[in-house]
Amino acid sequence: EVQLVESGGGLVQPGGSLRLSCAASGFTLSGYIMNWVRQAPGKGLEWISYISTAGNIYYADSVKGRFTISRDSANNSLSLQMNSLRADDTAVYYCARASSSALKWLNYWGQGTLVTVSS
Amino acid sequence: DIQMTQSPSSLSASVGDRVTITCQASQDISTYLNWYQQKPGKAPKLLIYDASNMETGVPSRFSGSGSGTNFTFTISSLQPEDIATYYCQQYDNLLTFGGGTRVEIK
Fold first, then answer.
1. How far apart are the CA of B94 and the nearest CA of chain A, in angstroms?
2. Region of residue B68 (left: phi > 0; alpha: psi -120 to 50; beta: else)
């Protein structure tokens, strides 16, 4: 059974850093495009980053230069290093697996982890 | 960047009603369009991929159509368990989600 479990969320001050993790089971993470998608409280979904099977990385403009996605094949996990956090980064962060090695649809999602940026 | 415009932003319908949601892309995305359902406090769930293909296990009352810039998502007979927010998502260029449509029971 495919499972994704995020961790690492919490309360952080503006300008601070946080590292999110996503533990994958039931499949080999490096064989799929893996994504981070976030949802601000009461708002819609926003794709923010993906890492391809070849290690190619893309970011939304809203996080480019501040967030870093990475993959640990040995531990079958995905990470998101978030620096220079701002109040508008407050959101539930989901890791999500694409359907294949191509970026098409996201058919497996974690339960999400809440990041609150506030002083 | 490709913008996705969903309408309406919310709707209220009776059990058994036919519900239709539209999604418009800012440029031609062929059929590179998916639909998700999100219930409160839960992660999104894929319902329809490639504009009109139903994900395994999804009830047949859900359907999708369209190509190019205009897409439609339909619930043929609204059920109480369909209360959720529905999102379209394009993958022609990276990923972009529509703003969502909240569906409520009248």
1. 7
2. left
